[in-house]
Amino acid sequence: LALAFVPTGTVARPRFTAPRDRVGATADSVLRTLGGDPARWTRLIDAELVGAGAARRFLMATGASDSLVERLSRTWLHEGQWSVRYVRTDGTVAERAEGWTITLEADGRPHTWEHILPDSLAAPSVSRTTADSLARAALADAGASPGTLTPVSADETARPARRDVEFTYDDTAFVLPAGGAVRRFAVVAGDRVVRVGHRVFIPEAWSRADT
């Protein structure tokens, strides 16, 4: 039995319109604002395709308005991104384990960032309230309105010499149908924020049915 799958429409792919040199310069600028020095790292640039198909299907199936889909498509449902990694190729194991990842939209706009720390790195402990404030401040810098962040979870991970907490918030500036949500997250390692990001949350029951 032979099965043939024939496309019935056009599959949209991102156009990586930003030149690589501008992508690198923008990522370097973001790194400097975060306290990093690009000169201390080896920089690697990749253009990556990412999947937002399930989120798009969810919005279409649940009757989301065209204006909401368009708004989300600008930065939340992108199909491709630049990933700029800053790594070390020599030094101790801990030094090589540290790094940065700055992601940018296909057109070169900054998207998210992460400071990768070795598990063994020590950092002072702060209260949960202080850590939450640090997370909210970092997300505000990333474009969130502090007044629209509703707590969802705070997942704690014990490291050998510090405590990491990943805070997740619903961003109520976006109202999605059928239990969906726009979620922002920030990871606080000890007394510093090391990652910020966002995603479209799809209810598990819908996701299982879609699969």
Describe this structure in words.
The protein is α+β, with helices and mostly antiparallel strands and 211 residues long. The chain contains 6 helices and 8 strands.
The backbone outline, from C-alpha atoms, is globular
Radius of gyration: 19 Å
**Major sheet details:** 8 strands, antiparallel
pLDDT averaged over residues: 91
Q: What fraction of residues sit in β-strands?
A: 25-35%
Terminal CA distance? 24 Å
Count of helix runs: 6
Q: Strands of the biggest beta sheet: in what spatial order?
A: 1-2-3-4-8-7-6-5
Show unreliable segments.
1-12
The ordered H/E elements are HEHHEHEEHEEEEH
The helix/strand class is alpha+beta
Helical content class: 25-40%
The number of E-state strands comes to: 8
Task: Jot down its keywords.
8-stranded antiparallel beta sheet, globular, 211 residues, single chain, 33% strand, alpha+beta, 8 strands
Per-chain topology:
Layout: H1 20-33, E1 42-49, H2 53-61, H3 66-73, E2 80-87, H4 93-97, E3 99-105, E4 110-116, H5 128-141, E5 149-159, E6 162-171, E7 181-189, E8 192-201, H6 204-210
Antiparallel strand pairs: 1-2, 2-3, 3-4, 4-8, 5-6, 6-7, 7-8
How is this structure best summarized?
It contains 6 helices and 8 strands.
